[in-house]
Design brief:
single chain, mainly alpha, 2 helices
Length: 74
């Protein structure tokens, strides 16, 4: 005797594809997060060495943070 779910075939397909999509989007978001951390680290280290105006130093860092936060919610 084998176990067989009582769901329709279409319902199982939808659930399976939803799960696969969730896994793929999580992997993609992990890549975006990694790129954000690397970019943020590089910007902070490069601006620590310069003596430019404060606005010139914080604009790229702020832009990077905003794009990371907004990119997840769009």
């Amino acid at each position: 005797m084998s176990y067989s779910p009582t769901e329709f075939r279409q319902t199982l397909f939808v659930e399976c594809t939803w799960l696969q999509g969730a896994i793929i989007s999580s992997v993609a978001y992990g890549m975006v997060f990694t790129l954000f951390v690397l970019c943020f680290n590089l910007l902070v280290r490069s601006h620590a060495r310069t003596t430019k105006d404060c606005r010139d130093r914080t604009a790229p860092v702020g832009y990077t943070c905003i794009m990371f936060v907004w990119g997840r919610h769009l």
